[in-house]
Amino acid sequence: MRLETDDTETRDLVERYVARLALPTDRLRVTTDRAAFARWLGRRVPSSLGGAYAYLPSAGEHAILINLARIDRAQPRAVEVVVVEELIHMRDRLDGDLRRHARHGYDRIATRVAEVSGASLEEIRSCLLPVKRRELRYRYVCPSCGHEVRRRVRGTWSCARCSPRFNPRFVLRLVPSGPVAPAQGVAAVAPAVAATGSTLGNRLGAEGAEVRVGAGSSAEDD
After folding, report:
1. DSSP codes of every residue in 131-180
2. To 5 degrees, how large is the angle CA 7–CA 58–CA 193?
3. Residues near 176 by beta carbon (within 8 Å), at least 6 away in sequence
4. pLDDT recorded at residue 100
5. Residues in a beta bridge with 212
6. Which residues partner with 172 through β-bridges?
7. In this predicted structure, what is the pLDDT of residue 222?
8. Are 42 and 73 in contact, with CB atoms under 8 Å apart?
9. N- to C-terminal Cα separation, the chain
10. Which of 114, 120, 178, 182 is the most buried (most CB within 10 A)?
């Protein structure tokens, strides 16, 4: 097992639950470094994730992120439930169960985490720190209909009011900073690159990695 962390609690928990879930370790990578996990996947990983599991088909390996920066370590079992959840995702894949999360903290995965770890559902649901939402810094406008959209990051989008699919004719234009009216349609944009789902989970990375988002996923990227 390739265990990349200096955190003693994480190391002890991974070793304990790998044994309890009877997981093979010859092709398992675990890290607490989000940048390292992103390199393994070949793409960016949102800072809002508490943890994530991915199968890397090109290497035939299982990869797990335990994002300690997002875990509320004031909660005694917070790291434990994140570790258990990601290892359960690995166990499921090995058993041929590729079902997605229904709702973090409220679905069958949460129930299994509680059964395996002995933690309560409330402990599972409160294991992460609150996500800090960043200011909507950038204002974009549709050159066709004039619809305004505010975004937290720069990017390329087209107006979803003018075309439900990305259309270069309706690419939103960045306008100079200044007083901005209350946002009315942050979601009314069509991304330049199509993505499946609203979170990181079950999208395909550069090397075709199947990713399952861990505890407390959020659509907020950094």
Report:
1. P-PPP--EEEE-TTT--EEEESS---EEETTT-SS--GGGB-EEE-SS--
2. 90
3. none
4. 83
5. 53
6. none
7. 39
8. no
9. 30
10. 114
